[in-house]
Amino acid sequence: GTVFLDGVYISDGVTSIDFSNIERVEIIKGPQSATFGRSTFAGAVNYVTKTPGNEYAGRVIADVAEWGGRDVTVSHEGPLMDDKLAYRISARVYGTDGQYVSNADGGALGEESTETIQAVLNWTPSENLSVKFRYLWSHDDDGPAAGMLLGTPLSARGNSVGVSADASPNCFRDGVTSRGGGIIADYFCGALPVVDVDSFIAPNTAISAADQAAFRSNVICDPRFGVCRPKLPGAPLRSTAGLTRYQQRAALIVNYDFDSGMLDGHSVDSVVGWSTMRAGWVRDFDLTAAQNFLSQDPVVADDLTIELNLSSPQDQKLRYSIGANFFTADNVTAGNGGQTVWGSDGGVSQRVVAAPDGTILPEPVTLPGPHYFMAAVPPTEGNETTGIFGSFAYDFNDDLTLDVEWRYQSDDISLSAPSNEGVPNPSGRISAATYEEESFSSFLPRVTLSYDVGDRGTSWVTYSEGTLPGFYNTDFGGLSDAQRDQVRAVIPGLSLFNEEEELANMEIGFKQEFENFYFSAVFYMLEWTNLKTRQGVSVFDEAGVQRVLNLQLNAGDADLEGLELEGGFSLGENFSGTFMLNYADGEYGTLICGFSPFKAPIPGSGNRDCSGSRPARYPEWQGAVSGIWTDSLASGNWDYYVRVDGEYFGEAYNEEANFSTLGDFWRFNVRGGFERDNLRIEGYVKNLLDDDNYLAGARWSDFSGRALFDFLFSQGVAVTPAEKRTIGLRVVYDF
Questions:
Q1: E strands, 343-491, where?
Q2: I need a labelling partner for 290 at 20 to 30 A (CA). Which of 33, 88, 594, 702 fits?
Q3: In this structure, is residue 505 part of a structural domain?
Q4: What is the residue range of 18's domain?
Q5: Is the pTM of this model over 0.70?
Q6: Among candidates 310, 492, 324, which has minimal Cα distance to 392?
Q7: In what order do the strands lie in the sheet with 660-662?
């Protein structure tokens, strides 16, 4: 789900959140557009920060673990003015050396380093008024992530992890032909083989001197064609693969309770939130030992949130609220391939047999590298959102309640690109500045009818709708009419702006509490329309310079349904546990799937038809169990506990075409400790059984050779290896 911090939208998830400062986590499943806005397509997670207390108190949390793991947080709070003004300040240093080493150059994979500082002030000048100010600063300096390209001997150019035909079923060993008559390379069918990751993982962590010079320059040029364009200003630059990111977040939260007049018993809440991020990301795009395709992805992002909400007394039979919000964001990013350099090591010499259209290709021509494409300042993606929202709840009697929430929201999205005028260009070619904009609006309801059944039981029916904002094809902006015609020859009807994705949800649920047991059961049905997918298309400008576009399009619809069971229990005073079991079924009604030469093409276009497939990375079964034993030592001075958590992830497809799967697996964690008064000492083991199943997998084109634009021809699966068994020790001390 979409992430919020004190009700303020966080664009890049939870990476900057210091969880030692979190008081509670609010999780709401299903479309939450009526409550939080249209980006909450699949639910919302709202982290609520702790409010500083009026007594001096501090905490130190120190964690050390294998693989160089370290995590230290120090916090302190107390009054600045008795019962009026209180503070809380914290600092965190986190890091790990990574669990894998690249076989290409010996560099660490999965290395991470984060520094965070957070301060909170809480002012309560009267019983009616509270003002909370929060500020956060964070810095990430990470190495390249652990990942690799898994391929069969025929599916890639020989640079990926080779898996023999006998080790895994493959689909096209007997020579299935493409629509043009050429041979389609091999690909996986069924469960991916789990290989010895330590022996094969080999993305590059180092960057050649020539690539460093290009990446660290303020202007990037392609020596083949004499094209130079300015790079994105403000984003940090790197000389090795990895991520550098700086973030700042601030929020002002005001609450006022009326105690007289016509608004007696009402409350008004306001939130003003601001954030900024500057990031630079360099990655080995081909995920192989060949240093042939590196990508630099700068990001500059700023946003502002303003919200005001008036609520009626909550102890009345009829309750209501009404509010308005404003959100604006500017995001300059090239995270889909960015400013790319290829050919640094000449690629490989293996002959490419055929292109996707069946054309037999000659031996690749060796060109002195490095070469560049997409060497432009990324466009600025603008978003300005205004909305009004409200709710009312009515108790028909002590058992039956109707809740209605709604939001009307309007999005104005824009795409602007600067000119490269004034930048030295040996070719003399100038790209003009461009600006495009589009508006979207919708009414988003959420209606719940709940009925209390007997003692501590509740049943409910909910209907809700959600949307994702209309999106733009960043790479489509700034193209000439001739280039857009080239794109539409492959994707008919493609436009710069695409329609909103829409989700309609029907939910029927029941929950019951007993003295030592509780459970809930929820059945849901979802209709998902205008869902988007990616497709790569190469175009040529008037000078014959080739450019690869990463495009998005409304691709189809899907029907999803499932059953979620959750519960908990206690056995006596010492043992308790929880459980969760989810069953999910889904099918694409219609779907255009890019990068899937294994599916038949749709007549009249180059698109492929994946209708009837199951959504990718959507397992049929998921589950979790936990058990905890708590007791006191005979001396009575120390309490102790032991907890075991297990998580099950079922088999799931890696791509919309439904050929390869990640196998199902269980993963267990265990922790135990002793605590007394203000001290807790805990030991833990993550991935207790050292399960080596991949954490994630996705179809990935092989970019390790010279023929970079045959995305459909050579394919494998990009996999994220498991986190290895890790033993650690954590100490918590309060003072």
A1: 371-373, 380-395, 400-417, 434-452, 457-468, 471-472
A2: 594
A3: yes
A4: 1-49
A5: yes
A6: 310
A7: 190-191, 660-662, 652-653
